[in-house]
Amino acid sequence: MGANDMMDMVKCPLCGTMNPPTQKICQGCQTPLSGESFQPGQAPVKKDTGELEPILPQWLRDARETAKESGLGERYQQSEPNQSAASSSDLLAGLQSQAKSDDEEEVPDWLANITGAPKQKQKPEEPEEFTGVRWVETGHRDDFEQEDEVPSWLAGMQTPSTGADEKDELTEWFQESGAGKDSFKSPFQQIGNSIPSSSQPKPDDTTPEWLKQMAAEAGEKKTESESIDWFSQIPAESPAGSKDQSQEPSVPALGSDSSDWLSKLQADVNTDAQEEAPESSEFPVDTPDWLRNLGGVSSGEPSPFIESAPDEPEPLIPEPGIPSWLASEESKKSDSTPVWLQEKGGTESDVPAWVSQDSASTADSQAQQDNLESPVEDIFSDLPEWLKSAAPESSIFDEPAKPVETPSVGAAGPTAQPDFETTPAFTDGGIPSDADGLFTEMPDWLSNALETPVTPGASEPGTGSDALASNVLPSWVEAMRPMDQAIPGSSSLMSDQTFEQRGALAGLQGVLPAGLGFAPTSKPKTYSNKLSVNDEQLKHAEIFEQVLAAETAPERLVTERQIGASRGLRWAISAILIGVILTVTFLGTRFLSVPIGVPNELRFTMAVAQAIPENAPVLVVMDYDASRAGEMEAASAPLFDNLMLLKHPRLTFIASNEPGAILAERFIAGPLAVHNYQNGVTYLNLGYLAGAQVGIRAFAENPMFAAPMEITGQPAWALPPLQDVKSLDQFALIVLITDDADAARSWIEQTETARGVVPIVAISSAQAAPMIQPYYDSGQVAGIISGLYGGAIVERQYNNGRPGLARNYWDAYSLGMLLALVFTLGGGFVQLGLGLRDRTASRGEK
Amino acid sequence: MRVLTAIIAIAVGILILLGYFFTQAEVVQAVLLDWAIILAGTATLIGIFNLITVHADKIRRREKDGVYSAILIIGLVGAFFFGIVLKPQSSFLQSVLLEGIIIPVEASLMGLLAVSLLYAAVRLMRRRADMMSIIFILTAALIFLGSVTLPFGEMPLIGTLIRPWVSQIWAVGGARGILIGVGLGALMTGLRVLFGIDRPYGGK
Amino acid sequence: MAFSLDLVTGALGFLFTVLILSYLIGDNPLFKIAVYLFVGVASGYTAAVVFWQVLYPKLFLPTVLILQTGDFMRGVLLVVPWLGFAFILMKISPRLAGIARITMAFLVGAGAAVTIAGALTGTIIPQMIATIDFFDPSLAAARNISAFEVLGNGTILLVGVVTTLAYFHFGARQKPDGSPKRFAPIDLLSWIGRIFIGITLGVIFAGVYAAALSAMIERINFLINFLTSLLGMS
Questions:
Q1: How many CB atoms lie within 10 A of CB C21?
Q2: Using a CB-CB distance cutoff of 8 angstroms, which residues of chain B are in contact with residue A695?
Q3: A547 is a domain residue
Q4: Nearest chain C Cα to B46, which residue?
Q5: At A510, is the pLDDT very low, low, confident or very high (cuts 50, 70, 90)?
Q6: Is B100 touching A (CB cutoff 8 A)?
Q7: A764-780 residues labelled b (16+ CB within 10 A) or e (exposed)
Q8: ipTM of model
Q9: Is residue A717 assigned to a domain?
């Protein structure tokens, strides 16, 4: 079979069987393929369906007029102000002429309405722009942003870049309808679903899964206005089709459109659809195959319903009360034709009712009313398998039938309007509890139909002119049919039954065109796998390699010869030092003289101390660690011995470190025990003053407040040692005993202003004396007694050689200093020589 | 929290600082400083508690030196218990804790320092023989020599003249420079805290 | 020597002194035991001191007195310490440790103010004035210092102070090769300053050694005294 033969083959719109052109009836399903029926691939003819307005039944025309005058559409419009004003050739195509819209829609409305993208913004697509098909398959996010490459038929699927925070209402609508719904629905199955969407102004997510996936991949969300269903487009299609006209009542337009849609049914009584279709077609030439395949069945007519249909988890079996205008009397008679599609052509039992439209040419308006009342229990049972698979699990028609007193449009005031923002159109549980309100927004023509009681006779096939005849499409459907003939080779593409295996469209058949005109035409660009670098880049690479080589090259470490810790030297020093001290101490030798010369700072210290009055209050600051208790007691005991012997001062001890208080007790009970000072009587221990500098400052400013109690918990400032003393400057002398230069500095600094003219003398450890000496030079400290050396001098010079700790330690101390001199100088020079030798050797090695 | 702590630090600092210059602010300064004394004491307790926590963790993890940590905690708890019950100034604690443990250990460690210092001084010239090291060692040796007395008194000239001259003039020159430098550094540090530039209390 | 508290104290002191001095042989477990026990005992004792000598008289006792007397007006001054006490105790909990920052901020602010005032009025200004006044003949005479000493020693002091400060000046320019270069006069002064610093540190080193030597002597003296007492030699 040649290619031309294939092109001439006629595909059955129902079962997809390819039939010879001469075949009048499908070989597979016996569906008529004659010219009377609509031929798949048949190019629709552009047609102004508004011309068919006069042929509408009077009741429909009245309903349209009523709807126009009502404010329902206005309310609807207000709820969705951003609704696209695009007009489309959809179910309401009859309004085209009324709306005077000059929109040349190239995107089918059903697709455009999926995302609600304004159709005006969609540019005519070139056939080669179907490269966008690939991004559908791969689903790459970036591809979605390439709007220019998106085919028009998919352009509507793209979610407009309206901001990430905007709500994807359409998707939510579908999600609310519950899981397990078929991603794709028969357009006709959606018809019913689309109706409640008009009464539920908030069209929630009705996006099929594959569209959801695409939307998710696109990473963009739709605005409410952009995600509205086909119904939401209605106001935009009203008269001017512009935003200025967006305030036009939409529901009247719906009523008009609906009645027009129905009027088409009537007008089709004696209309040859095959002749009109090519003339009325305004559909884009790039309509996808799968749509064309459907178009063979339904052409562009179902488009508006697909995306607008809410995916309601309603019972599959509908209840009475379904709009009977969709039902057919033949539903009872036909086994294979869906009841809701069947018309009275009972003889064409195997032909779907919508195909056998011609048989309904005799149906009158009464039959139309009857159709509204036809039972729908077996609507879907009659669906062919291919349609069943695409059918939704439920629809609005599944709602248990109950006669609904649908208020008139005019009666439905704005206050009765549900909140579009908060009220979901559908819930998971099926029809909302206020299902009555579901139909409150329905146009009159539909409300009237719903109000019609269900009668057995309603299931009889209609015989009026409104009834759909098999294989005969109404004119409005004809008007929406794409002009497939404009695409070369489209007929061959229509037969493309490729079953999508992967991607967002997995499971769909014939969705993506893979034939001529849609496949990539350009040869893939070849790229060389060789680097093309210029000289400069080579130069840089060379430098970079050199840097890397320098970094990774082993570098010779300049190692200094490790001077290990000499345990022998340490032991030698220890042994000699301890041996000398032990020997001298054990022997108790006193062959070395204590220092004779009296340093100035020591002289002034003694002068200040001896200048205090008898029984004067003396503040003694204890700020040394236990580790230096031996040194500090040896250094300070001679001074206090002198003072206590000569002046009997009242001593007040305060400590600025934790062990200071108990060291004061040890000091009194140890070296000064001979003076028999009593706590609380002749001396006082104020204890520990926390906070270091802060505490010192607090004590200097207000000693009574900072140290209110003595160490035993008695109020200190009422005791004899502190009699007549309220502040720091009322002490006769401040003696600072410290081994810490920082502590000494803190006391000197913080008492600078508070102590007034009260002299402060420092008895310091030898290690702190060099840093306290500047304060003596500056006059801030009246005198210094430095360590054992100073204590020994005081003992000898001011205590008349009274034996004390300093003298006991002095020989060992003096010898220890001599040893230090020997080790430091002798050992130092030896080590210096060794070090020079090592360095010379290391230089030689280098 | 960052702002609150900064405000507290700055406000307290300024109020206390005003007490140095205005007698009217001395009362506020005294109150704030008294509070600071209490809080400093509490901080010391927290530090000790942290010490317990660290060593308790070592024991719990059965680390290598966990036994020593147990000894530490036992000593700490025991000393604290007896300190609270008997009060720190009791003669028992003074005898057992101070005279029996604290002073012997601390003084002995200090005695070890003498050996270590000598060892370090000997090794210094081998490791580093630059001008400063030589001056350092020579000065130390001079002080050692000047501190040594003979049976009849100080070392002539060195003990009576050079040593005092070096320790009270040359050393004081450097020490004063160091003290002024320390003072300037403390001043700048305090100002940075008061200006909120440094926040050693956390919240940087 | 009869069994007494002094004997126990002496024995403990002897034991711990020997344990610590055993470090001269090398690090050993006995030394570690002594050090760890010392740290524990010192910390526990410090905690007791803080409780009895800081918190009890300044926080707990006044609170109890206020509760007993009902004079809650005096308790106003204790609100902040109690809050700070509570906040800083939060440091125990890692989750609430952040609250302790409030107390730490209080302490840091107080310390900063005290440091500023102390450094300014107690060290910087007095020491600078002292450096200047050293050249004052009247003051020198009051201190029994001759004019020759004033001029000579004053100059040494002045140079020492200036050069030492210059040594701690770390400002430098950047040479073309990127290395830092001090300003030449500063560089010269800092070089001289190194001499003064070396001398000062040498003196301090000698002082530290003297203090350590004194401690060593005291310990050895204690050991000898204890042993002689124990053996009844004295």
A1: 23
A2: 33, 36-37, 40
A3: no
A4: C89
A5: low
A6: no
A7: bbbbbbbbbbbbbbbeb
A8: 0.94
A9: yes
